[in-house]
Each structure stands twice: as structure tokens, then as C-alpha cells.
Amino acid sequence: MPDPSIKDQLTSDHAELYDPVIARRYFAKFDRITQHLVRVASEVEEEGRLTRTETRVLDRYLAAISATFRALNYKYLMTGRADGAPKLTFDRHESGFPIAQELMTMAVDAAQAGKHLAGMASEAELKDRMVRQIVRDLTVPTALQFALSQRLYYEALAQGGLFLTRNDPDAQFIEDRGDRRHFLIHWAVYDTQANLPVVYLMDAEDSGRKPLPNDDRRWPLVSQGIMAQSVGGLKLLTIAQGFDKDFEGFHPKRLRRITLGPMHSKDFTLQSGPISTVLANADAPDGEDWALVWTVEDLISDREEDVKDGWFSTANRQIWKLDPLAGAETGSTRTERMVILPEQPFQAMVDLNAPGLRDVRKFVVGAGGQILPAM
Questions:
Q1: HEC states along the chain?
Q2: Residue 327: its pLDDT value, please?
Q3: How much is the pTM?
């Protein structure tokens, strides 16, 4: 059964973690999950559904998510133990991740990390003072422990490499294609409505005189347009058509949106539908009672045509291939959902055999963290 103290806390879509033991369990769970996600990305690459470059890009964002959780773990290390210690707020409904405000606050803290560190005692000094308080006063140095946790938090922020609410675009050159250059453009955001990390991968051809990332006239406009369009409610077709029309010499050929989450856990989140039954039936031990969904929306250009653009001119435009059944609704060529989960929840999912879960691609976490693809 879930810890009663957890049940008491989960009374709305957003919940705070008050207890230090529960907070440590939460962060330990995500530490394991992010490691599994890297292995899943490698498995998807081996199947030919990601290139090596795309896998490296995705691994970079997964490492950034891991760094963000590590920093937050330090920040909330003394939750429930020190007076005034902050408490993490997370979205327990169809997310499981921290709310976006947590990352916004972290970005503000990161900008001032150097200033905070300059005014703090060193780690060695704080530990020395802890030992002296324990020996001299025979008391737990709670205030010093809190000070050390905050120093470790700001040190983690100062190191950088964090996943923020906005992770600006970068362009990776792939190859020349005749008179065009092929780039993989990638960026990421933290969806402030769903409270989930989202990664975008765009294959684009560039016919400009200067390579797009080096063009100080076009690249700032493209970058700004990319981030402005990175809203979860927008269909990929809407985003891609806007890029195709608005930017000179820019020819998007494929656009993917990878949503990492939600994370479902019997102890920490509220589920509806068959996944709730799966986790309840699995009755898995702590650390094994979770399932993480990974959704890939994919939009592919079918061909390129010249269309009328004004009274006396034409322009190249992409004709996008849409799913014949649901393309008008989804705005994509295809949408694939995957789920990563430990063995006990997977077995419960197989036993339940719910229609809504049959077509979901499954990756099972086996012994030693090995990832086992399953149909």
C-alpha cells in the first residue's frame, strides 16, 4: 500500500513533498528513469528509427534533464528536516514531473549562482563546523546541513548543462545535398501546461548563400520563430507550414516532437484508465512501481512543389504526408507511443491486455537495468 503520508499530501493536481524520505524516493526514482531513457534511445537507434546524430542530440537533452533533477535534489535535500527548508511542487496528474515554476525559479537562481556561492562558506568549512557542533554540543547541525545543501545546489547550477523551460535551437550540419545543405535543427522546451519536457528534431535543407547557423540575418529570425511556435497545442503541420512559408532559403523536410512523460507511479501520481489498473495489480516494490510514456509525433514531407507566391513569382513549398486516417486531426504523418516500465508492471500490463495498451510499444527494464524491447 502507498505510504499514508503520501496520500495525505496528494489532494490536488499539484502536490508538495513534505517528508525527506519521500522526497529522496522521488528523486531516486527519476535518477533511475533518466538512465533507462538513454538506453531506450540507443535501442531505438539500433532499430534504425534514430540516426547516430539524433541519438547524441537526444542523449544531450536527457543528460540535461538528469542535471536538472540532480540540482533540485540538492535544493530539497533538507525538506522536512530544517525550519524553512523549501518543498518541491510536482504535478501528480498526467505528468509526475515538477511543475514548470520549479524550472523557472531554477533559471533565475542559476543566473545568480556565482553571487550566492561567493557569500557562502566552502563545503570543507561547513563540514568542519558540523563536526565541531556534533562533538561540542551533541546536537544535530541541521542549519549547517541546510546551508551545505544550498551550496551544492548553487554549485550544480553553476556547472550548467541544465534542462530549462526554454532550450534554444542549435543546428548540426549533416551533409551537402546538391546546392543545398542538410541540417538537423534541434531545440527543447518544458511544456508549461502539461509540465513535461519536449524535444523537437527538424531535418531541414538550406539554400541560402551563407550556411543558416552562420547567417546573422536569417538565423536569429529562424531561432525566434522556432521558439515562438514551440507550443504543445500546435499541430506539427501548422508549425512546419509556417517555417516553410516564412523563412527565405529554409526548407523543412521532417519535424518530430518527442514528449518525455508522463511518469506514472502508484505512490506519487494519479492515473486514470488501464495504466491505473496495471500499477495497482503489479503491486511492485518501491523503485519498481512506475511506467513512463514516450510519445513521438512525426511529420514528413512527401514532395516539394512550386506554388504561386504573389502576382509574378513562385516559391518552393513542401507537400506534407499526413496519416490517411487521423492526419487531419493530429497534423502528423504518424504518432507512436512507447512505454518504459519494470518487469512487474509489464507483466501486469500483459495480463490485463487492455485495448488502449496493446498497440503501445513496450520497453522492459530487466536485471541490471538492461532494456528489453517487447511487443
A1: CCCHHHHHHCCCCEEECCCHHHHHHHHHHHHHHHHHHHHHHHHHHHCCCCCHHHHHHHHHHHHHHHHHHHHHHHHCCCCCCCCCCCCCEEECECCCCECHHHHHHHHHHHHCHHHHHHCCCCHHHHHHHHHHHHHHHCCCCHHHHHHHHHHHHHHHHHHCCCCCCEEEEEEEEEEEECCEEEEEEEEEEEECCCCEEEEEEEEEEECCCCCHHHCCCCHHHHHHHHHHCCCCCCCHHHHHHHHHHHCCCEEEEEEEEEEEEEEEECCCCECCCHHHHHHHHHCCCCCCCEEEEEEEEEEEEEEEEEEECCCCCEEEEEEEECCCCCHHHHCCCEEEEEEEEEHHHHHHHHHHCCHHHHCCEEEEECHHHCEEEEC
A2: 77
A3: 0.93
